[in-house]
Inverse folding.
């Protein structure tokens, strides 16, 4: 099974490598200014961001001034959404009355496009980190909140009755029953919010910022530097892949019991 899994993972990379090679061959033959060769993009990325001294982990001043702030804003916005969304979602999920009363408000907030609130966030927080983090946090809280509500509300009633029979305290029921049962849904919300956070990070930096990946993307567009524009697109893809891989690792570690239980049920 492990050999098959390794072969499957390698096959995915083979597809990516073949796609890049085909792109390289096509771009080298057509010399399109809109689709530069991957070799040109990678060379610019190296000199732009990753050719710094070893004492700075090979990051250039441009990388520390633009890439790292974008990563920090993304993680800060997600952290705020998690700190608010998970506890509130568990509370609403375990209170049917509160959930029903707030359902219209929650659905309204979820359906409200974040881009329409850009003037509001600009007026409240001005241009800067606070506006960008608020945009990310507001946009990413809804998948986490709604999935947490769903997970907390779908706890097996038999398990709840068993916990009551054993006279578990509220804290014990929360940590040993409700939260573990809701974790699969919570991670589903995390996965949706992660991709959304990167989109909102770029959007907020395009609207108003003095640094960041979106800021560099806007400068490249205004100066018609398509190679640098492709550099920002590629680095966004790499960042999304790395964050998703970290989330997958955490999910496998935290939900190992859940995956095992489902395998036993399948048998």
């Amino acid at each position: 099974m492990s050999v098959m899994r390794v072969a499957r993972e390698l096959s995915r990379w083979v597809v990516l490598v073949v796609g890049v090679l085909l792109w390289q061959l096509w771009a080298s033959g057509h010399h399109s200014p809109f689709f530069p060769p991957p070799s040109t993009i990678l060379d610019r990325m190296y000199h732009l961001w990753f050719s710094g001294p070893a004492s700075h982990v090979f990051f250039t001043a441009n990388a520390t001034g633009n890439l790292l702030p974008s990563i920090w804003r993304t993680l800060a916005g997600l952290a705020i959404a998690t700190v608010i969304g998970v506890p509130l979602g568990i509370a609403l999920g375990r209170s049917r009355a509160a959930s029903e009363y707030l359902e219209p408000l929650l659905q309204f907030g979820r359906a409200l496009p974040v881009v329409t609130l850009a003037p509001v966030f600009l007026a409240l927080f001005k241009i800067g980190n606070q506006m960008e983090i608020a945009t990310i946090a507001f946009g990413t809280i809804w998948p986490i909140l709604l999935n947490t509500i769903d997970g907390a509300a779908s706890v097996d009633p038999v398990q709840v009755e068993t916990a009551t029979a054993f006279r578990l305290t509220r804290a014990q029921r929360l940590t040993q029953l409700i939260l573990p049962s809701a974790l699969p849904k919570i991670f589903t919300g995390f996965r949706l919010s992660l991709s959304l956070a990167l989109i909102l990070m770029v959007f907020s930096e395009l609207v108003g910022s003095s640094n960041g990946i979106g800021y560099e993307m806007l400068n490249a567009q205004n100066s018609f530097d398509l190679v640098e524009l492709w550099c920002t697109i590629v680095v966004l893809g790499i960042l999304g892949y790395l964050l998703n891989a970290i989330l997958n690792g955490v999910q496998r570690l935290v939900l190992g019991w859940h995956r095992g239980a489902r395998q036993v049920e399948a048998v």
